[in-house]
Amino acid sequence: MSLSDTQRIEILISLGCGGKKTRTQKQVCEIYCKYPERRISQSTVSRIENKFHEFGNVTDIPKSGRKRILDDEQKLDILLDIQDNPHKPTRQVAADNDLAQRFREEGINTLIAEDDADLLIVQTAIEKC
Which of 7, 25, 37, 54 has the least CB density, counted as fewest CB within 10 Å? Predict the structure, then answer.
């Protein structure tokens, strides 16, 4: 798991960034116990400090790659639809949620299952979105 922007800013404050540096990276690692379930390494502190000096902020830069087709709310709608009516045909679930059109727009080919694997197909599609 990555650190939140707030946690990264707290690390910078602990270092004394922006003014005179008051602590070493190692000292910050040792005193950073507000989030004990997330131990931080000296390299983490170093990366945060370097990012701040290079870009002027600590926010993650968006990564490249294919964008998600469905947001979390749309995924939940589909799962609830299946849960409410588990015998509803996959094609109907797809039609109700415009999945075929979304997949076509993203260049994703869909396949028709030979067996009764409708639920597995929809779940797999949702996981990949």
Answer: 37
Cα angle, residue 109 at apex, residues 107 and 111 outer, rounded to 5°: 165
Q: Which amino acid is at 70?
A: L
Rounded CA separation 9/128 (Å): 33
Chain segment 65-111, per-residue pLDDT in tens: 777 788 888 889 899 989 999 898 888 888 888 887 888 888 887 76
Q: How many CB atoms lie within 10 A of CB 41?
A: 11
**The predicted structure's pLDDT at residue 84:** 92
Nearest alpha carbon to residue 94 among 84, 86, 102: 102
Average pLDDT in the 104-120 region? 71
Which amino acid, residue 57?
N
Evaluate if residue 117 carries a pLDDT over 80.
no
Q: Is the C-alpha dihedral spanning 28, 31, 35, 37 positive or negative?
A: positive
Give the Cα separation of 69 and 128 in Å (integer): 9
